[in-house]
Write a structure and sequence with these properties.
Layout (H helix, E strand, L loop, with lengths): L2 E5 L8 H10 L4 E7 L9 H14 L3 E7 L3 H11 L3 E5 L6 H13 L3 E6 L6 H4 L7 E5 L14 H15 L4 E5 L7 H7 L3 E4 L1 H4 L4 H8 L4
Parallel strand pairs: 1-2, 1-8, 2-3, 3-4, 4-5, 5-6, 6-7, 7-8
Length: about 220
């Protein structure tokens, strides 16, 4: 089953409660929170995303899917665990070595939160393979991280297919989430490659009908 995690990155601050409500009515499966520190990527959304997360906790029971694009993973993990989110995904590129990756995985899971590892378009997908037995999902960036509204990079489709094959052959139960430039023109392609959680931001937020946009992403229209 394909699920949709709607990114709130481009949602208007003055309309955030209304947007959260309308997305829930439209049956998004998750709210996607893009946390950027201005160091790992150019933009800094730390304060804005914390406010959005707290707003969701106040008005909705839907799962909160946090994507950390930060250098200091541990600091942000602790912050979002304290808020009580459902899943935290951090970038493998933000960790110095294998021990640091495993430390973050263990800490997140010990706090009753699901954990994911994200990987950038330029990184080799094989870097994630050894961690698959310990995580709930892998997030494949289909654009360069840091900005919304980019076009999907075609070369990332092969990454999705490769890790899908590896997960199947090894019998792992790991979701494949894709993030970046997903719309009505390419959703089918990434789903056929093996993705089962689609992060969509601009395409949904800028649409006139959230419900219709979500159904299109799920290939139900």
């Amino acid at each position: 089953m394909v699920e949709v995690s709607t990114s709130l990155l481009n949602a208007k601050e003055e309309e955030i409660i209304k947007t959260i409500y309308e997305l829930e009515v439209a049956k998004t499966d998750y709210f996607h929170i893009d946390v950027m520190d201005g160091k790992f990527v150019e933009n800094n959304t730390s304060e804005k995303m914390r406010k959005y997360t707290e707003s969701i906790k106040n008005v909705s029971n839907l799962s909160i899917d946090v994507h950390l694009m930060v250098n200091n993973v541990e600091e942000y993990v602790k912050d979002y665990i304290d808020i009580g989110v459902n899943c935290i995904t951090f970038h493998i590129e933000a960790c110095k070595n294998e021990m640091e990756v495993l430390k973050q995985i263990s800490y997140i899971k010990q706090n009753n939160c699901k954990v994911g590892i994200a990987i950038n378009p330029k990184s080799d997908i094989e870097k994630v393979y050894e961690y698959l037995p310990y995580i709930h999902k892998v997030l494949i960036m289909t654009v360069e991280p840091g900005k919304g509204g980019q076009e999907l990079l075609p070369k990332t489709i092969e990454k999705i297919a490769n890790i899908n094959k590896f997960i199947y052959e090894n019998g792992y139960e790991v979701d494949i989430q894709v993030d970046g430039g997903i719309n009505n023109k390419n959703a089918k392609q990434v789903i056929e490659a093996g993705a089962n959680i689609i992060v969509a931001g601009s395409y949904i937020i800028n649409s006139e009908d959230y419900s219709k946009a979500i159904k299109i992403i799920k290939q139900k229209i």
